[in-house]
Specification:
Blueprint (H helix, E strand, L loop, with lengths): L1 E5 L4 H12 L4 E6 L11 H4 L10 E2 L2 H4 L5 E4 L3 H13 L3 E4 L6 H10 L4 E4 L5 H17 L4 E8 L9 H13 L4 H4 E3 L12 E7 L6 E7 L4 E7 L4 H13 L6 E3 L1 H5 L2
Parallel strand pairs: 1-2, 1-4, 2-3, 4-5, 5-6, 6-12, 7-9, 8-9
Antiparallel strand pairs: 7-10, 10-11
Helix pairs in contact: 1-9, 6-7
Length: about 260
């Protein structure tokens, strides 16, 4: 499978490149940098610090190399992701996107892309996070209005969007288990006199240092509390998951796929 990685110097793009380079079922054919970066023209292995040169260029012209690939893996920025999406559709290339911070209208564009290309969107490509999502659905479906639900998510100081895409996905799963829409019941932080409204899902975002992704969901009952937590020690688990998602799309028909399809959940 011939792979193009978007943003190979970013924290995720670098790891995805390293993982893809180590896999026998993948061949890297290009890395795509944002326009005008000083590493354009360098070898992808050097840019992503794989330990050796790969004989593959880094360019800022996706249109010029896109026809050489089978799949694009993009964990860059929401702005760059929309440009990548348009080119993937135009050239009929499979796309894995893990960027976050999109509006509802932008997410609809990814869903609609599934009518033309194999499209896989995943806010979080960790296997354990997605198993956690199944547990959240189970607890919420079982207990419904007997519990209060609060989400605490922690990330590094550089993360742009809040709450995280992963925590939004968790909230949507639990809201649907309650028969509701997250947009109608989400509460973002509290200040001053702010009593808890029954049936809402509370969000709290912490940004500090180089904290990797961390999510805890609190289910508060009377006299007891259940906490379900996932901590990532680094971003390697997400990079491995991203490459698994790309491999899953090999030979797939157009469609809007998710990490659940990859993991059989």
């Amino acid at each position: 499978m011939k792979v193009i990685v978007i943003g190979p110097r970013g924290k995720m793009g670098k790891l995805i490149t390293q993982v893809a380079a180590s896999r026998d079922d993948m061949k890297l054919v290009a890395g795509i940098a944002p326009k005008g970066r000083d590493y354009v023209g360098m070898d992808l292995g050097t840019v992503a610090m794989t330990g050796s040169e790969l004989g593959v260029p880094v360019t800022d012209d996706l249109a010029g190399v896109i026809d050489s690939c089978d799949v694009i893996i993009d964990f860059s920025t929401k702005e760059m992701a929309m440009e990548v999406l348009d080119l993937a559709i135009a050239h009929k290339k499979a796309l894995v996107c893990g960027s976050t911070g999109f509006s509802a209208e932008e997410m609809k564009r990814f869903e609609d892309a599934g009518k033309q290309i194999p499209m896989l969107y995943a806010a979080n490509t960790s296997k354990l996070v997605n198993i956690m999502n199944k547990l959240l659905e189970l607890v919420t479906t079982t207990l419904k209005d007997e519990i209060d639900i609060e989400i605490l998510e922690m990330h590094d100081q550089w993360k742009k969007d809040a709450p995280s895409g992963t925590s939004k996905e968790m909230g949507e799963i639990m809201a649907h288990a309650l028969g509701k829409e997250l947009s109608n019941i989400a509460v973002y932080g509290r200040e001053g006199e702010s009593p808890r409204e029954p049936g809402t899902i509370g969000y709290h975002s912490l940004r500090a240092g180089n904290i990797p992704s961390s999510h805890t969901v609190f289910f508060g009952g009377m006299g007891e509390r259940l906490e379900i937590t996932h901590h990532s020690y680094n971003w390697e688990c997400f990079a491995r998951g991203a490459c698994d998602c790309a491999a899953y799309l090999d030979g797939k028909a157009p469609g809007f796929y998710s990490i659940k399809d990859v993991l059989g959940l």
